[in-house]
Write a structure and sequence with these properties.
74% helix; 500 residues; four-stranded antiparallel beta sheet; single chain; 16 helices; alpha+beta
């Protein structure tokens, strides 16, 4: 507690002892702050508000046309406006790079523009573009030019896109129309080539083959009967008797394996009955010698049956070949039909999209989709948004007091002379004598008069300094006009250029 009280007194004594220097330093720092607030480059901000309006006709033709959605337009708006191309075009339009003292290369200019541009989107269909510049006229013209160019570029790009889409669809329609015609021709040619096979009913053809095989079997049976009859006739001279014996033997063999209802058994029994009837008719004839005419007749009948059998075999083989080729022929036709249907589906979709594209193109040409409406164009800013002079001035006043006191402390620490007895005692050195400070009355009077004059002048000057924050609060531009007349900003800029 004693140490804190001692330090307080020490600093207070230091402040009293060097009060003139403290006042002078504080006023100098405050003056520097005031000057700094006026010499810092001023920035003016211009704003423009744009409303994105969606026309009623867009809702009426919804589903018929294809137009960019408002969400997509807002999403790319920030990137589109701050694009290098658009910023360079806007800067060239107002000859920004030709102004004195800002001749910089295009890359640096674009970075500067992107740094000073701010875009805010509100309520999903309202955006505000602001730009800061040292020249208020440049800020206003740049914002208005940028907004105008963006609207023109957006409208033009959408029209070009619609024209390109319609042209592309027309080209694709012609291409797929040719493919569809080729696919149709391939189907027609295939039908002409394989039509006879494809048109055959597989079920009926299968029945015809089975019927033909049955007929072939009957012919073979009849031929074998005639051949057997011919052999027996040659041996016994009675062909009916020989055939009867043969059939009876065959009937016995079948009955050992099948019942009497078996079709072959029934058929053989019928033949046996027929032969027996024939033999009854020839009962009175007894034994007859072999008739050459009858034998020749049998041979002719056998030969005719063989020819019929050969023809029936060819018929069956042909139909079986057709039956085997029908699945592959139909599969080939299905493949060509599928290819044709695919081409037709694509062609139909392209044709429908082409109609939508035509309507969309007309909407873009007549500006019936989305409209950019500038509801609040940028005006000439009269008051800079930076620097914050009032804040700098107040900080300069506070900083002057603190800075001046800090300088006094620094000077006191750098002073190595003995200032009191306690300083010597800390070194354990005996104090032989202390010479008190003898105040001279005339010198004290002179110091008081000098301090009074100094504090009077300092007070007046401090009041003068306070006038600047007051004028800033009242919005007075009198000091600005003075600085503009002496063109101090150009002087500072020239110093910076020389330092670079």
């Amino acid at each position: 507690m004693q140490s804190s009280e001692f330090d307080y007194k020490k600093y207070l004594q230091l402040l009293i002892r060097r009060k003139e220097l403290f006042v002078v330093l504080a006023l100098l720092i405050m003056t520097a702050g005031i000057i700094l607030s006026f010499v810092l480059p001023k920035k003016y901000e211009a704003k423009s508000t744009v409303f994105i309006e969606k026309n009623v006709i867009s809702e009426l033709v919804k589903g018929i046309t294809v137009t960019p959605s408002m969400e997509d337009t807002i999403k790319v708006l920030t990137y589109a406006i701050t694009s290098r191309t658009l910023l360079s075009k806007a800067a060239d339009t107002i000859d920004m790079n030709l102004a004195p003292n800002i001749r910089i290369d295009n890359e640096e200019l674009v970075k500067k523009l992107q740094k000073n541009i701010d875009i805010q989107v509100k309520d999903k269909n309202l955006f505000i573009i602001s730009y800061k510049d040292s020249n208020p006229k440049t800020a206003r013209d740049f914002v208005n030019t940028l907004v105008r160019l963006y609207i023109e570029e957006n409208t033009s790009s959408k029209r070009d896109e619609s024209y390109d889409a319609t042209k592309f669809l027309s080209e694709q329609i012609n291409t797929f129309k040719a493919k569809l015609e080729k696919a149709q021709n391939d189907v027609n040619a295939y039908k002409r080539d394989k039509g006879s096979v494809i048109a055959i009913d597989e079920g009926k053809l299968f029945e015809e083959i089975n019927t033909a095989q049955q007929k072939l079997y009957d012919m073979e049976l009849k031929r074998r009967q005639l051949e057997g009859m011919r052999q027996v006739t040659k041996k016994s001279g009675n062909p009916l008797q020989a055939k009867l014996l043969s059939l009876q033997k065959k009937l016995g063999d079948l009955r050992s394996e099948y019942t009497d209802n078996y079709p072959e058994v029934i058929r053989i029994k019928g033949e046996i009955e027929t032969i027996q009837e024939q033999m009854k008719g020839h009962a009175d004839m007894g034994y007859q010698s072999l008739d050459p005419t009858e034998l020749a007749k049998i041979d002719a009948e056998i030969a005719a049956i063989k020819v019929s059998e050969e023809g029936m075999r060819r018929y069956i083989a042909t139909n079986q070949s057709l039956l085997r080729n029908i699945p592959s022929a139909k599969a080939g036709l299905d493949k060509l039909e599928l290819e044709k249907n695919n081409q037709k589906n694509i062609y139909d979709q392209l044709f429908a999209r082409h109609g939508q594209s035509e309507v969309s193109k007309q909407m873009e040409v007549q500006d019936k989709s989305t409209t950019f409406r500038v509801v609040d164009p940028a005006i000439l800013p009269t008051k800079p948004v930076s620097p914050n002079r009032l804040k700098i001035m107040l900080m300069g006043i506070i900083g002057g007091i603190a800075g001046s006191f800090g300088i006094l402390l620094l000077l006191d620490q750098m002073d190595t002379s003995v200032k009191d007895v306690n300083f010597i005692k800390d070194f354990n050195v005996p104090v032989l004598a202390v010479i008190p400070h003898i105040n001279d009355a005339r010198e004290l009077a002179a110091q008081r008069r000098r301090a009074t004059r100094l504090f009077t002048i300092a007070s007046i000057y401090f009041l003068f300094i306070l006038c600047f924050p007051a004028m800033e609060l009242m919005g007075s531009t009198y000091v600005d006009k003075i600085f503009n007349n002496i063109n101090l900003s150009d002087l500072v800029q020239g110093i910076k250029d020389n330092l670079r």
